[in-house]
Design brief:
- By secondary structure, the chain is α/β, with parallel strands linked by helices.
- 37% of the residues lie in helices and 17% in strands.
- The protein has one domain: Rossmann fold, CATH 3.40.50.
Length: 289
């Protein structure tokens, strides 16, 4: 049974800091139970996760850790979107907090980081949860230019949020977008600053690439891992189409794929309760092979 609460723990969780020799990493913890460390998306910070999704995970018995990458949000140090640098942040946080038997999850860019982490440190990871991300290698369906044009705009407004993370053509999805953005705005103090849009888009370019994630080493790791992997995606993701995961059907021995209808790049924000419940069921039902 879940332990869902009327008030949002996530929206009021204290910001803590892991002090390292050259920088500090800002993080928050919600819940008790199995550790689940979530890696953030492009332009994501501590306060861009939907509190209802985080709280729901905690309600299913996870101790959920979110954090800001170095130099972004409330973390200090040099900022970078180079995936190995982001893996280093995640690795130092997990080791620094002494987490064991840990599940990791990553949204979008964070999903790429999670796959690299699995390839490098898979023996220390129990499960991998991927949210609206891309597999390595050549894609059967590349991104839409609409993502790059929209993601390059500074700030965050409802129309931009809906275009990127939801399905603008669907009335129910648009309504879910409004609710999610309202929940994200619940926290009034100690908010993590937004990532500069101009800097961020300069790191990934202004047009789609194929492959988006060129790493044969990681693809081979996914093909031979015994760690259970779950991908949650929307049926119309304008940056990382879910079709690219289905194209790998039969090639990845531990991959589970769930696709949400009339949804975009943030399916866990449109369906936060369902996503949390399905992640919990996946972790509970899939021990290491």
């Amino acid at each position: 049974m879940t332990r869902l609460k009327a008030a949002s723990e996530s929206a009021s969780a204290a910001t803590q800091y892991l002090e390292l020799d050259d920088r500090k990493i800002a993080y928050r913890v919600v819940g008790v139970g199995k550790p689940l460390v979530l890696f953030n998306r492009f332009r994501g910070v501590l306060d861009t996760w939907d509190p209802q999704f985080i709280d729901s995970l905690a309600g299913h018995g996870f101790q959920v850790f979110t954090f800001d990458y170095s130099g972004l949000g409330l973390s200090s140090g040099d900022k970078s979107y180079n995936p190995p640098a982001l893996v280093k942040d995640a690795r130092q946080l997990i080791l620094g907090l002494g987490l064991e038997n840990v599940a990791i999850g990553g949204w979008s860019l964070g999903g790429i980081v999670a796959q690299i982490y699995l390839a490098m440190f898979g023996a220390e990871v129990s499960h991998v949860v991927l949210l609206g991300t891309t597999p390595p290698g050549t894609l059967v369906k590349p991104a839409e230019q609409l993502f790059y044009d929209t993601a390059a705009k500074p700030g965050v407004d409802l129309e931009q949020f809906t275009t990127i993370f939801f399905e603008p053509a669907d009335e129910a999805s648009r309504a879910a977008s409004r609710r999610s953005l309202d929940r994200i705005g619940l926290r009034s103090e100690d908010r993590s600053p937004d990532v500069d849009a101009e800097w961020a888009i300069s790191q990934i370019g202004h047009t789609p690439r194929n492959p988006a994630f060129p790493s044969d080493d990681v693809l081979q790791a996914l093909k031979h891992t015994t760690v259970p992997i779950l991908h949650l995606g929307g049926d119309h993701d304008i940056i990382f189409p879910v079709e690219n995961w289905y194209a790998l059907n039969g090639a990845l021995p531990t991959l589970h794929v769930i696709t949400y209808p009339r949804a975009g790049h943030g399916p866990h924000h449109q369906y936060p309760l369902a996503a949390a419940a399905q992640i919990a069921a996946f972790v509970q039902a899939t021990p290491l092979i």
